[in-house]
Design a protein that fits this description.
387 residues
Length: 387
């Protein structure tokens, strides 16, 4: 029990094995404590091995043991092993209950496998377990990916049973709306929660803001940020990142600059994603001068950008006579940082060379990378033009 509370799963397994060797015949309580230690530490191999060892000693796998083992598989990202346990595979004689099914469905959530989670729910119903709970439906919503219709249907089932969805279930619907490019539904779901007296938390607001950004409605995204300020809801770095991404997609340079300043004033540490979105928003929004200044500031502070940030930086050089030289310099800088340019960045760089009538420099862009077939074709055309 002490090993369980301390998360010392290896010691718990060793004690169980020692008791078995010395013919002390450890009981279900001892086994369950060792399994719980494995569950806390995501030690799924240890949990499965312990179940097998206990089965050889004639210990039946009750719900507590099964729950701990499935929990270990869930936390260890081993959804297949979790499914085997729930469906009565090896080790034999394990007895699942509703908590077990919830944990197994959560394991499917990590794999974004809604079909298997639905199959588990049917299996639980056939075994005449308790009716699916808020936890069950919430875990299922987390598996649907971009299938926003399915997420909305599952949430509707909860409300039809007069159950208030959990925060994770509401966030799951909003995330599905974001991935499915359904910003209007996401916004309606958020407003619905507020109307029912269940104020959405920061993760839900962030998901709705991201959905609006991906739907190219930057005004709605910034409106959500303003709403959060008015109701004193918490804002975190992700809140600003999603709003900045919306500004980037909407080419809103001034709003992006304001958000970056506000973030710094609140002593939040902008990350690579933040700066990449800000540089890109400034470049797209017709302020390449400010994008260039931000890039210089990042260089002075030795802040690294990602590939998206470098693509934005190349775009930011528009209108300058030395634009093509800057593009090649940025590309070289990225490669020195051991990063691999992607097709989008190479396309930006080739576009700069073509616009500046410097196609003779095209081979430099494609150095050390095969690129895509389309980019290779552009390179060949550039070389033909040079000849």
């Amino acid at each position: 029990s002490a090993c369980e509370k301390g998360g010392a799963w290896a010691q718990a397994l060793a004690l169980f094995a020692a008791a078995s060797v010395r013919a002390l015949r450890p009981g279900a309580v001892t086994r369950n404590a060792a399994l719980s230690a494995c569950g806390r530490a995501a030690a799924w191999r240890g949990a499965l091995g312990l179940l097998r060892a206990a089965a050889r000693l004639g210990l039946e796998g009750g719900p507590v043991a099964c729950n701990a083992a499935v929990s270990a598989c869930e936390k260890g990202g081993r959804w297949r092993q979790a499914l085997v346990l729930v469906r009565g595979g090896e080790p034999r004689r394990v007895e699942p209950d509703l908590i077990t099914f919830n944990a197994a469905i959560s394991a499917c959530e990590g794999a974004a496998d809604w079909e298997r989670s639905a199959s588990l729910l049917q299996h639980a119903t056939r075994q005449q377990l308790l009716a699916p709970s808020v936890v069950t439906i919430g875990a299922m919503i987390g598996t649907v990916g971009a299938r926003w219709e399915l997420a909305a249907l599952l949430l509707g089932q909860l409300r039809g049973a007069l159950l208030e969805p959990s925060a994770s279930a509401s966030c799951g619907l909003l995330t599905a709306c974001e991935r499915g490019r359904q910003w209007e539904l996401g916004l309606a779901a958020l407003r619905g929660s507020e109307a029912r007296g269940a104020p959405p938390g920061t993760p839900e607001r962030n998901a709705a803001t991201s959905a609006c950004g991906k739907g190219h409605v930057w005004e709605a995204a910034l409106g959500l940020l303003d709403d959060a300020r008015r109701c004193a809801a918490g804002l975190d770095a992700i809140s600003y990142d999603t709003a900045l991404s919306a500004c980037d997609r909407g080419a809103q340079a001034e709003h992006a600059l304001r958000l970056l300043r506000e973030m710094r004033q609140q002593r939040m540490e902008p990350g690579v994603v933040t700066y990449a979105a800000a540089v890109s928003a400034l470049a797209r929004g017709g302020r390449p001068d400010l994008a260039g200044e931000l890039l210089e500031e990042l260089r002075r502070d030795r802040t690294a950008l990602d590939v998206i940030g470098y693509s934005a930086a190349i775009r930011a050089g528009a209108g300058r006579a030395t634009r093509w030289q800057e593009a090649l310099s940025l590309l070289a800088e990225l490669r020195l940082g051991a990063a691999t340019p992607d097709a989008a960045l190479l396309g930006e760089a080739l576009g700069v060379l073509e616009a500046c009538c410097r196609s003779d420099e095209a081979p430099e862009v494609m150095a050390d990378t095969a690129g895509t077939a389309q980019l290779q074709l552009r390179l060949l055309r550039a070389l033909e033009g040079r000849g």
